[in-house]
Amino acid sequence: MSYGRINFVAQPGDGVTQFVGKVGPYDRFAIAWGYKPIPEAATPDDEVPTLDKWADAQLDNPWLAFGGEDVPSFFDPTVLTETIGKDRIETTVLGLQNLDRVAARLASAARDQNGTNADVAEMYGILLDTRTSWIRDVAKMVGGVVEHRAEARAGKGPRFVPVPSDQQRQAVAFLLKDGLAPPEKFLDPNLISLFAAADATAAVEESQARTLDSLLSGRVYTMLNQQAILDPKAYTITDLLAEVTGGVWAELGQPGTPIPPLRRALQRAYLDWLEQQLAGQGEPVDTARLEAYGVPPEAAAILLSSGQGTDFNGAVGTVLTELADRIEASMGWTGDRATAAHLANSLVRVKAIVASTR
């Protein structure tokens, strides 16, 4: 089940009137496949040829395509819940526009009479979590492998096809430009002041960190490493780290530009995450917590890894050596004391991380 509950991509002026899901072609297809009697079959095994024939309907009708819940589903970016649409980036762009519209009206729509504004706080959290989830779905494209189970069974192509490297780069570019950009509608003082006395922006900082973590993850490193072995033109771990580092530290290329607080928080989270991953390189991967939820051990080992057995260490050392040079060259151009202090501290941390990779 995809749990695609609402049409969240429809925009004002599209003329769309159906926003809530209803029984459609896929539902009838899936119900028939699961429950329609096959009188001529004497055993469950006898049903398989007919079931496969029915399933082949998705070869000509892409809206009938479905994904499993086995190991491939953890690495296939087309297998998702709570989302709709084929183009993951465009779908997310449209969805974020709608979330911004909702957030802009939240203060007036959910404000209660007793002044506690508990409903505003609850809805704010739900909206921000939804935003984070949709953005992180795009990160699944990086290192992703799409399963074509029906096509392979029908002899019409390979079962597993990596997401093309250009699409992976597009996903990274989107995440750096839009996914990790401070969400202005969620940082409106007039909204946040209704329910937050302290830690008013903590939820946004956490959202940024979660997005970064999903992009720079052991799953991504392991899958990119595998793809680089099989294809010399594949997107690599070094490519990823270089592009993410350039995006997260983009202010270093803009002399005289102060680094705002939320961006400083993101840059600290970036260093925190790399330190944590490097510290885990020599440790065995504990898969128990995911296996407890039914995740197969081979999938759990990749999902929980820190990039063990990949080019991660060398790539981090190379990319952060370049970052240290950029920070050092930028330290003299800012008149903003908070930025200067942040850069000085970051330089010390970056050099220490580089040293730990040797």
Structural write-up:
The structure is a single chain. By secondary structure, the chain is mostly helical. The protein has 16 helices and two strands. Helix 5 packs antiparallel against helix 7, helix 5 runs parallel beside helix 9 and helix 11 runs parallel beside helix 15. The radius of gyration is 23 Å and the shape is globular. The protein starts with about 25 loop residues before the first helix and ends with a helix.
| Strand order in the largest sheet | 1-2
Radius of gyration: 23 Å
The averaged pLDDT comes out at: 92
Topology pattern, helix = H, strand = E? HHHHHEHEHHHHHHHHHH
* Largest β sheet strand count, sense and barrel closure: 2 strands, antiparallel
Q: Per the principal axes of the C-alpha atoms, what is the gross shape?
A: globular
Give me the secondary-structure category.
mainly alpha
What's the helix count? Answer: 16
How do the helices and strands line up, and which of them pair or pack?
Blueprint: H1 25-35, H2 44-55, H3 57-60, H4 88-110, H5 118-139, E1 145-147, H6 149-153, E2 160-162, H7 165-179, H8 189-192, H9 202-215, H10 218-230, H11 237-248, H12 261-279, H13 288-291, H14 297-303, H15 312-330, H16 337-356
Antiparallel strand pairs: 1-2
